[in-house]
C-alpha cells in the first residue's frame, strides 16, 4: 500500500491514559498513520521507574535496581506493574478485566533463565498494545492489535538481544493492505519455537524501523517526550534545541556515542530503503521535530554533541611498537578473545591506547593484563578508568578543522585536561576524552563554543 506512515510512540508517550489520548489524536490527524508501534508505559514523573524496569526487577528477584544503588523488592515491582495497568484501563474506560487476569498469570510465569527474563520484559509492550487497540476501538476507530507471536515477527534465539530473521519481513508485509489501524507492541519478537525474545533496551524503535522497512513505508515517525534529536543531552544542556535535519550517518554517530533518544540500529533498514525518519514530540505535535534523511546540505560545523560515560582505556608503551608487524592485531585479538568490544585505539611510534566500556573489564582485567604482558611484553601498561568521551558531530566538519582547534583551545583556556583525542576517518566527528568528574563542565563549554556561539 502506498502512502503509509509507521508511528512509534515511546514509553513516555504511552505512560498513562492522558498520554494515550494524545496518541489517539495524533493517529487520527493523518489517515496515512496506519501502523502504530507502542512501548511499555514509561515514567510519568522523573523519579519513578519505567514499567520495563519493574518487570526486569521481578525477573531478577529484586536486584535489577542495584546498579542505581537502590533496592525495590520484586513484590513491590509486581504491584507497581499491576497498579499502572489497572489505572490505565480504568481511566481509558475500557473493559480490561480479562487482560488484567491474564497479566497477573503472566507475572507468575514458570519459565526460567533468559526465557523468563525476556517473557516478563515483553509484557509491558504486550498489554499496552492490547489496551491501546481496545481504546481506539471504543473511540470508534477501525483498529486491531497484531501481536508478534501471532503474525510471526520471527527473531533469533538470543533471548535478550534478539535479531530479526528474514522471514519476519514477509510476515510483517502480509499485515499491510488494510485501511485499519494496526497496533503492534514494540521490543519483542518470537523464535521459531514460539518463545518470546526481546531486542536490546530501547528496542521498540527497532520494531518501528523494521515494520517501516517491511512495508516500504513513506515515513517512519518516532514520537517521544522531547522536541526531536536535541543538540546535546537536555539534562545537562537545558538550552539545547532540536536539530532540524540530520543524515543517517550523523544520527548513527550521535547514537553510538550516547545520544539515547533513538535506538542505534533502528535506522539501518530505513536507510537501505531511503525511508525518512521524523522524530517528534507527542506533547507538542505541531513542533517541526528532527528529520533524518539520506542527504542534507550542511550550513554549520557541529550540529550535535554526544557524550559517552563509564569508559576506560588500557595504555601500553613499548619502544618501536609501531614497527612490530601485527602488534595492534594481536592486541585487538586478545580483547576479542575476552569478548570485549574496543572503541578507539589511538596509536603512535612507541605507544597505543585501547578504549573500552569499563563494565566490560569487570572480572577479567587481571587476566587480561597478564595475557597482554605474556603475548606482547610491553615496557609499561596502565589502566585509566572513569573517562567520558565527548563527540561533536556534523557533516560540516569535513575538511574544516576550525571547530577542532576551537574545542582544544577552549578546553586549554579553562584548564580542562584532555585525556585523549581521536578524529573519525569520515572527518565528520571527533572524540575528546576527559575525566568523567569534569565531563559536565567540558560538555557545557564545548556546547557554548561549538554550537551556541557559532
Ligand atoms: N541529544 C538528545 N536529544 C534528545 N533527547 C535526548 C538527548 N540526549 C538524551 N536524551 C534523553 O532521551 C529521552 C528520550 O528517550 P527515551 O526515554 O528512550 O524516550 P521514549 O520513552 O519516548 O522512547 C529524552 O527525554 C531525553 O532526556
Ligand atoms: N520498553 C523497552 C523498549 C523501548 O523501546 O522503550 P522506550 O520506547 O520507552 O525507550 C525499554 O524500556 O527498553
List keywords for this structure.
Aspartate_kinase_CS; ATP binding; 2 domains; VC0802-like; globular; nucleotide-binding; binds adenosine-5'-diphosphate; eight-stranded mixed β-sheet; 19% strand; Carbamate kinase; 454 residues; alpha/beta; binds aspartyl phosphate; ACT-like_dom_sf
Task: Please give a structural write-up.
The protein has 454 residues and is an alpha/beta fold. The protein folds into 2 domains: 5-293, Acetylglutamate kinase-like (Carbamate kinase), CATH 3.40.1160; 304-452, VC0802-like (2-Layer Sandwich). It has helices at residues 17-29, 51-59, 74-92, 97-107, 113-138, 148-151, 166-173, 204-214, 248-256, 268-272, 327-337, 365-376, 402-413, 439-452; strands at 5-9, 33-38, 143-145, 181-185, 188-190, 196-198, 219-224, 245-247, 277-281, 290-293, 304-317, 351-357, 380-393, 420-423, 430-435. Helix 3 (74-92) runs antiparallel to helix 4 (97-107), helix 7 crosses helix 8 (204-214) and helix 11 (327-337) packs antiparallel against helix 12 (365-376). The protein is globular. The mean pLDDT is 94. The site of adenosine-5'-diphosphate has 19 residues, from loops.
